[in-house]
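Thread: Newbie trying to understand structure tokens

Hi all, I'm a second-year student working on a class project, and my supervisor (Dr. K.) asked me to get a predicted structure for one chain before our next meeting. I've only ever worked with sequences, so writing a 3D structure as a token string is new to me. If someone could post the tokens and maybe explain what I'm looking at, I'd be very grateful. Here's the chain:
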Amino acid sequence: MTRLILIGAGGHGKVTADVAGETGYSDVVFVDQNFLERTSNGAWNIIGSVDELASIMKRRDKVFVSVGDNLARAKITNELDLPLITLIHPRAIVSKQAIIGEGSLIVAGAVINTDAEIGKGVILNTSCTVDHDCQIGDFVHVSPGANIAGGCSIGAGSWIGIGACVRQGIIIGANVMVGAGAVVVKNISDNTTVMGAPAKAVS
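---
Reply by user tm_fold:
Sure, no problem. This is what the structure looks like when written as tokens:
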């Protein structure tokens, strides 16, 4: 039996563990140095810290980084010298023509349409949509209910807030924060936070 070790035992970790179970992993455990006083995270055991991963891992084990914070997820992933699996909930709809990067998570209800390219370590959360020909950079998080129209580009490390909408063909830079419910109708430069409808930069 293949065991799946999740790095990151927070709330997002529980969502990831649930998706893993739906994809067929019956033995799912966590490592997380921030929760060593606990023995479990919901229905799943915490068996040690990230520093202990090398000694904990067995030959058949698989690893997935289940940290919601984009910067932390990128740091952990880039420091690991291990191949990562991709987790796609069976009730997500993913085009056969879409490209999904390693270490990415696609949650129930998400729709990924034809020729979309999803980078490494991306979170496509509950019931979000990524339409045709979009390019989603590494370690992006598209929050629940957010909608990305066709032909958009989203730079690495950006966060699209819950319920946000992005008009077709928009270019969003790296490390951008799009607020909950925002409506993006213009391109956004790197390292910018936008909110509102239409979305505007905030200091």
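A couple of things are worth pointing out once you decode it. The domain at 4-85 is CATH 3.40.50.20 (Rossmann fold). The longest strand covers residues 3-7. Feel free to ask follow-ups in this thread.
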